[in-house]
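Hey L., structure's done. Input below.
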Amino acid sequence: MFSNGEYVMYGTSGLCRIAGTERRSFDGIHENEYFRLIPYGSENSSYYIPAETIGNKVRKLLTADEIYAVIDRIPSIKPIWDDDNTRRHETFNGMYKSGDYDKIICLIKSVYNQQQIRSAAGKKLPLAEEHMLKAAEKILDSEFAVVLGINPEDVADFISQRLVSVSEN
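Output:
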């Protein structure tokens, strides 16, 4: 299923490296087998995921070909915006937690689009959306960077270059 040293995605916690399995008792009574996950960029932290439920909480990384396909779909993903703050927050939170990159890219495009509109009017983006944008970009950037062998800071440029080269062909 999962191998020691393998990078995986752990829900909204993001990219993690599997650091093996351990038998542990967190309640002082029951001892169970856990996978130990180390968050990307945070070697001093750990998550312990029960071995029997890891398949529900952790997924393998996309392949490079799957990432290219996601990038190639970006132009067809339409931004959305709901002026009702509560509904918008619920929608964006659901998109973020889905782990579906088409939805995460829709979220990113939607918030970025609204950021441009507000900036042109001399206004700032609501703080909740700024945080959601950063979190969504971090999830996408970390996985794409590890799979493609580039720095997370270079992912946006990589995507832009790929979109330009695809549109020219």
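The longest strand covers residues 14-24. Residues 159 and 165 are 10 Å apart (CA to CA).

-- N.
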